[in-house]
Task: structure prediction
Amino acid sequence: QEAAKYGKKVMVVDFVTPTPQGSSWGLGGTCVNVGCIPKKLMHQAALLGQALQDARKFGWHFTEEVKHNWMTMTESVQNYIGSLNWGYRVALRDSKVTYENAYGEFVGPHTIKATNKKGIEKLYTAERFIIATGERPRYLGVPGDKEYCISSDDIFSLPYCPGKTLVVGASYVALECAGFLAGLGLDVTVMVRSILLRGFDQDMANRIGEYMKEHGVNFIRQFVPIKVEQVEEGTPGILKVTAKSTTGDQIIEGEYNTVLLAIGRDPCTRKIGLDKVGVNINEKTGKIPVNDEEQTNVPYIYAIGDILQDKLELTPVAIQAGRLLVRRLYAGAAAKCDYVNVPTTVFTPLEYGACGYSEETAVEKFGEENIEVYHSHFWPLEWTVPSRDNNKCYAKIICNIQDNERVIGFHVLGPNAGEVTQGFAAAMKCGLTKEQLDSTVGIHPVCAEV
Amino acid sequence: MGWEERQVRGYAEFVRTAQSYHGRPIFALFCGDKDAEGRSWCPDCVTAEPVVRKELHNLPDESVFIYCLVGDRAYWKDPNNEFRKNLKLTGVPTLLKYGTPQKLVEEECFKAELVRMLFTED
Result:
């Protein structure tokens, strides 16, 4: 849309290869269809369940038992996503951007082939190309994985309640899904190969795990599935999972209605003809290395989003990179995408917001003696009356002593962590120091005042 | 079989008519009432109607086009009227594909390209 604003002739080629279970979706990418949007809505559904329990302590009386209906929630979520898909199509058409619902791949210099779902092929040429094909969930590579397991691509449109679920993985995708499924009242187990939330501050990651464990999520640590078999067909059916320990020879078995794989995502870069135009990719990971202007090794081909090597996999980052790139190309702008101090939030049952360095990375980069960590537990006022945990919410900032105690890391674990973190991210971008933070008067009574 | 048009007035008649065509693609245009001279109190509806009518030949076979007058201005302005409450309409004119989140609202209905997209694409 940005390029069309500058008078360029633009086409978008987007196609979703259905999952092994047959799930597919409309225009908008992962975030809108099988990521952030449905995730946050289902997380909200789970939070509301908790709120209903708290409500009684605040004086609300309801005589009926409170139960959750999966189909009602899923229909509403999918309806909303459908309106977003439609909105994007209207916006593209209105901006005179041509949209082809077809699978695009390079066939030669400046040329792509687009194949639609009926198999009809068309060739298109262009002056420049931007690759933003994103990623798809990885499968285990063990017997029964593609036939019987589902992934995040399937869960948000699952036409039946998943029931007793085994989530394989310890990424934020795994923990967020396990979190809301448990919050909706389902029996959930998480199978973790090694650590939780690799790449995130591990102290915070462990606190999240502890909270989830205390609130009914089972964890099986240091095991990986080696086989998935079907015991009974159905929606859902019954699956038997055999798993092996990563530290010995122990084998365990378990039965679940649904097995959700969340062990990682792989870039969609291997089958789009990049070799035909000479674009380098990291053979091992599939990611595309780019310079700080999102340009690949082929000057007329650019790439943005999750497929980039060494860059953050976040929707707002991709959007920002795309817009700035187009402005640099066609509007004479010079601004590059700033990948430093990008805030992020993990929507586990106890939300975690972060911006900047984790404690481990700060120690590694600056040395333990040069950083100071200030931290605090806090008890949200709203949790006091219903007697919810009084020592679980936690916040810490990491400061660089050698640079005026500049705040280089911000971490908060508590309700509405995303909302809290956004403001602090802006402050950090302005160079917030501990002294400035101390001299800012807090809003009372809110969690953020800590 | 081509497509057919039905003209209805008010919420109850709309729902009855839509239900009678269950199973076929249904498109609906909601406009403000017209006076004795055939002019609507809604100026945007006056602009949109000819644009929509010009694109009707693009309707898929077997589909139904329901032209629905919602009521007078006072009825429409009431935030609790049935169209707002049950069909989630936010403005007139609204052109929608019944049973899907696909719709065009107000000035979007003036654009032939968008109307055509609503009628012809999935």
